[in-house]
Amino acid sequence: MLTYNEGKACDAIVRHLEAREGARRTALRSPEDEHHSDPVELVWKLGSQLFALEHTGIEPFDGHVQLEAEAKLHFDPIKEALTGALPPGVIALHLPAKAMQGLKKPAIRAIQGAIADWVRATAPTVPMRRYADYIGDIGPAAVPGVPFKLRLLRFETMGFPDRLQIVHSVTEDRGKARTDRIRRACEKKFPKLAAWKKREGAKTILILEDNDVQLTNQVVVSETFLPIALARPDRPDETYMVASCMSPWWAWPILVGDESYFDMARRGDQPGWEINQNTLVALTKR
Known about the structure:
The protein is of the alpha/beta class. The chain contains six helices and twelve strands.
């Protein structure tokens, strides 16, 4: 069953804000537990500034459980075959979600080998891009022995270690499903935060927790969230994504003021940061 880590994800972002503001949290409380009329997860102060925070999990797509169960079987052999065989950078291999579901083991092994051979030969020829730069025509490629198309990109590490990143692309219908889910979360969370901003002058924070390693990453979340949020006057002051599906965890700013994740990445910053989840404490009961 998919689980989220609301309390610890909240602590991770509160710690980030403490470091940025140079102040320690005080007067921490849970309006939700108090049955407040605008029941956000947390409010607290940094210095004299009040903050109000809401958390929501990013729901998985249909078939998520099966994808998670099969991930090691389908994709770890590709990573193992390419260990030590790739050029510097973050090598991002995009392939369709559920690409190998329903195939028999011999067919899967043959496809894994063909993919590894193609990536090994192709990666050194792929131009290096800044991390998360998807601008331009990056078309999918037909690969001999692979019954679906692949897309290969190569990014500067910008603080990440060199590695192979397998990204599962989704169909248009699944993209719509993601948009609908995030829109519903915005409709539920934004008004509560806006009420605290209007009434108490709070800075408002939204956390999107990702516990779906196969189909979700900060890029697709930003692409989905930004058009929805920027069209709304009640959007939070700051929105972050916490990936609790990784070890260690990672977090990224999605929208801070009017500056998006993509703005920060294009400027040459490394927007994300690593989190040692073992040091976190749960600030809520979930």
